[in-house]
Design a protein that fits this description.
This protein is α/β, with parallel strands linked by helices and 378 residues long. 39% of the residues lie in helices and 21% in strands. It contains twelve helices and 15 strands. It has a five-stranded mixed β-sheet. α11 (321-338) links the parallel β14 (315-319) and β15. The longest helix has 22 residues, at 290-311.
């Protein structure tokens, strides 16, 4: 317990002296010295210079040894896979993007080869090989059904529906891995680094090519019996065709019905064209129009009211291409439209994660997994 407490402090607060570690953990100087010697012998900490500029002997600084472990984080979408590699401290070392055309369609176990290529290219940029990896986390649309092992709610990802998907990917990488819903990972990123810090009860609504939500209650993700909690793209709402036919209705992100057809990125562009902007090609271009922005805000508020009436979160975070393109102007309109639609009134924020929130959440999750294993000195 003392070892883990010291390691957590070194991860969160950076290099510390033996004295400071003792103060923060309540350990005596001899016990702190023994602890640091033990962790150094295990290769988990190392010295990194001295504290200077104060009376008395210079005190040594200790830090987590970044070579103790490395992790890979991956974000999957219909066009390819983005992979990032980091050391145990969380420092990013390399990132790569592999398109789905990087491996021929008729290649056996094509999905596993695509994942391996993405990881290997990120490792190459980091100057590492696979033997240095300890854990991997892969973020995908949909969710693994805990009963069957199949990836559900993501028929637009061909090749990802194998019953042995997790085992196949773990075998090709040679390390333990986690396959997690991409929107859930975006929520992990918000909870650690973004708009949902200090919130234990919040909902992240993702409006992009696809539409989904992550529900965090009591600080924990709500997954549901089949992993499908938060699949709000299927949610029936006024003004949208019903999503009938199960997964088949969402073979493309802009297909099917429900909330997906109201606020998904393709639908926002389509709305602008219906309003006469025939040349609009991007979500940002569509939401630059006041009339489109107002209608999208109304649609988002209607969907949020249904979610809030059931979950009652303290906070709603809007993430994905649509909220990012709409910005504060869209958020303010959503908040205004939301007034009176539901009795609970959560705060509404736009995601402020820089870069890819799915990749950031996958990295956070992979680091937590690796630290649980590597920092266990029992």
């Amino acid at each position: 317990m003392n070892d883990r407490a010291a390691l957590n402090l070194l991860v969160s607060q950076g290099p510390l002296t033996r004295t400071r570690i003792g103060e923060l953990t309540g350990l005596s100087k001899p016990t702190a010295s023994q602890l640091l010697a033990r962790l150094a012998a295990a290769g988990l900490v190392r010295t990194t210079g001295n504290v200077t500029g104060r009376p008395g002997p210079n005190a040594q600084l200790y830090e987590v040894n970044p070579l103790a472990a490395h992790v890979a984080a991956l974000a999957v979408d219909p066009l390819g896979i983005t992979a990032a590699v980091a050391d145990i401290t969380g420092r990013a070392l390399g990132e790569a993007r592999v398109g789905t055309d990087a491996v021929a369609e008729d290649t056996p176990h094509r999905t596993a080869h695509l994942v391996a290529r993405a990881v290997d290219e990120a490792l190459h940029k980091a100057g590492l090989d696979r033997e240095r990896l300890h854990r991997a986390v892969i973020g995908t649309p949909g969710a693994l059904d805990p009963q069957t092992g199949r990836l559900r709610y993501a028929p637009h990802l061909p090749g990802w529906q194998s019953r042995a998907l997790k085992e196949e990917l773990a075998a090709v990488l040679g390390i333990p891995l986690v396959i997690e819903n991409d929107v859930n990972l975006a929520a992990v990123a918000e909870q650690h680094d973004g708009a949902a810090q200090d919130f234990d009860d919040f909902v992240l609504v993702w409006a992009d090519e696809g539409v989904g939500a992550a529900i965090v209650l009591g600080g924990r993700l709500l997954r549901g019996a089949t992993g499908g909690a938060g699949e709000i793209g299927y949610m029936p709402l006024p003004g949208a065709p019903l999503a009938r036919g199960g997964d088949r209705s969402a073979a493309r992100p802009d297909a099917g019905g429900g909330f997906q057809r109201l606020v998904g990125a393709p639908s926002v562009i389509e709305l602008a064209r219906e309003y006469g902007a025939s040349q609009v090609r991007t979500v940002a271009g569509a939401l630059a129009r006041d009339d489109v922005r107002a209608e999208v805000a109304r649609r988002l508020a209607t969907g949020l009211a249904a979610i809030v009436a059931v979950v009652d979160p303290r906070l709603v975070v809007l993430s994905g291409e649509v909220p990012q393109a709409g910005g504060e102007a869209l958020r303010a309109l959503v908040e205004e439209e939301f007034t009176g639609l539901a009795l609970p009134r959560p705060e509404i924020r736009i995601s402020d994660i820089a870069g890819n929130p799915i990749l950031t959440g996958a990295l956070r999750t992979a680091l937590a997994e690796a630290r649980d294993a590597v920092f266990d000195t029992a």
